[in-house]
Request: fold
Amino acid sequence: TSALPDDNRALFAGQAMRELYETVQRIANARIQVPVLLQGETGTGKEVLARLVHESGPRRSKRMVCVNCGAIAPNLVESTLFGHEKGAFTGAVAQQKGVFEEADGGTVFLDEIGELPLSAQAALLRVLETKRLCRVGSNREIAVDVRILAATHRDIDVMSAEGTFREDLTYRMNTMTLVIPPLRDRVEEIEPLALRFLREANETNLGEVRGIEKKALALLTRYRWPGNVRELRNAIERAVVIARTEMIREQDLPARVRAAAPTPPRSSPTVEPDADTGDRSSSLSFEDG
Reply:
């Protein structure tokens, strides 16, 4: 088993993600560099895995260019990906390389590939099959050597059946599919991830929050995290900003997280960390290991 990079240990703390990490290592170092499709809910860490594929393989010294297909205006998608010639359309005042040329020798990561218009899907399929492209406004083919990684939270098989995603591109992208489980199915990772995000938030905010109280941690592990890892990061960053003590407490967490746990009986005592004795039974610090 290969060692995990220190900055990724929290994300791969659970068995399912460890197995996924080991698969990524095999894919990254395979001589046949097939396209990789990462599927999972929003915020599960698809781009983290994509970067691992790139950084663990022979293209690590070259560029990885990331593009969110859903954030590009439909009329600019092909120009963004494949470039354009001067005068190809209104506003094209100069020749422009696209994402694929910029990443030549490296990796292109297409986030939210399910949002690509059908015309761009056809052009992408041609690049996959021929390793050549034409800039918008040109008939001259340009050879490109890129590895293509893609991600989506949508089911492209269903989209293919509906006619919104090309069937031939579906087959090409499904050569290697990695499914990332949602955070609610990886409860064992919530604690190490929360502590990692706490450390990072402290560094950014120049904070002095030392850890997370046990009751707050219980709320974090009980919540379903529809926004997954990204939502957890946001919750911890918010808590670090508003925390009034050196520990993140229940009241520092977002209301939706606090509402995830049943209201405790009125007779239940409130346990607080003992500042004098250093009692650690009711709190968790990122110094705990």
Residues 220 and 257 are 7 Å apart (CA to CA). Residues 263-282 have pLDDT under 50 and may be disordered. The chain has eleven helices and ten strands. The first strand starts at residue 36 and ends at 39.
